[in-house]
Amino acid sequence: MPAPLTFRPLTEADFPMLHTWLARPHVAAWWQPTPTLDELRDEYLPCLADAGTLPLDAPAGLIPYLACEDGQPFGFIQAYRVMAAQADGWWLTETDPCALGIDQSIGDPDRIGKGLGTRMIRAFLDFLFADPRVTKVQTDPDPTNARAVACYRKAGFRDVAVVETPDGTALLMTVHRSA
What's the whole-model pTM score? Predict the structure, then answer.
């Protein structure tokens, strides 16, 4: 039986590892442009003050985490309030204040294709939906990223539409709280 997955808030000490992961070809192909270490600090340092709060309560609207198996980090995953992203031109039609979005990647290419991504996303959905206020979670992979799209579908996401985002064309996918 696989070890349970846990999530811990990203720390400043994790920035070099995250930078290395984001620069690896299997991640960089889909997460462009690859940020510099200084750009990572600029983006995530303000969010670290919110570590330990729930994504809906985070003033910055974004909480970055490391996904861990047996306490060892293997992936990056972040949750954000969808409506908080509207200030940057994202999801302008969203009206649900309790909708969250997620982005993630697995850092080690040797761990891809073994079901770990689906396990990570399912476990993170359980983590997010533990907050009774969360109504839905969305993600937006590149529609040509067949591996990611299949992973999200296995984790319970359903296709909504192909949309244009500030980063280009994306497949908007959602999963709603179970009744």
Answer: 0.93
